[in-house]
Amino acid sequence: MRLYDLVLVLNTSLSEADRKKVIDQIKTQLKDVKVVKEEDWGQKPLSYPIKKENAGVYVKLNLETEASVPKDFETQLTRNNNVLRHLLLRTK
User: Which of 18, 68, 72, 73 is paired with 83 by a 20 to 30 Å CA distance?
Assistant: First the structure.
């Protein structure tokens, strides 16, 4: 069993409904991966501007899978304009 932590920094201009759509879209990209826990850390200021944004909405997902995360998953996150930054760590 492989465990991952995924931290997302989302654009603050998104409404609550749009944020849920973005997170659901990311979950569908992770086909065989189970989301164990989802934490909304809220809006926090950024240390430096990213894409002309001074703040971001932080969301943490704890993931569990038998195999590894798809290879093109991080590329898809990078191409998503609503995701300012992401961090994917394998915890176990």
Answer: 68
Distance CA 37, CA 60 (A): 8
pLDDT band at 32 (very low <50, low <70, confident <90, very high): confident
Q: How far is CA 5 from CA 29, 48, 52, in A?
A: 16, 23, 26
CB 2 within 8 A of CB 66: yes
Nearest to 36 by CA among 76, 74, 1: 1
The number of residues in the chain equals 92
**pLDDT (tens digit per residue) in 38-57:** 999 999 999 999 999 999 99
C-alpha span between 72 and 57 (Å, rounded): 24
